[in-house]
Design goal:
This protein is an alpha+beta fold. It has one domain. It contains 2 helices and 2 strands; from the N terminus they run βαβα. It has a two-stranded parallel sheet. The protein is elongated, with a radius of gyration of 16 Å. The relative contact order is 0.19.
Length: 77
């Protein structure tokens, strides 16, 4: 095995999952961790009966997800 792929989609779970991945990598003598930030479509972030998203809401959610992914990239590079 040459690497591990870690898919992250919850900002509150990043630290724990990266720690677990590092532990597994150490046990398997894996040198590379590939990390992907999976961002959800804005409409998937609400219940259909909860509210209707405006384009401004969608843009705000996308911007927040993009900022999270960019911060994650800076953290793991």
């Amino acid at each position: 095995m040459t690497g591990l792929l870690i898919l992250l989609n919850r900002p509150d779970q990043v630290a724990a999952l990266l720690d677990a991945a590092r532990d597994v990598a150490g046990r398997l003598a894996v040198r590379r961790l590939d990390v992907a930030a999976a961002r959800e479509p804005p409409d998937d972030t609400i219940l259909p009966t909860e509210e209707i998203l405006t384009e401004a809401d969608r843009a705000r959610i996308r911007a927040a997800q993009r900022a999270w992914a960019e911060a994650l990239h800076r953290q793991v590079v």
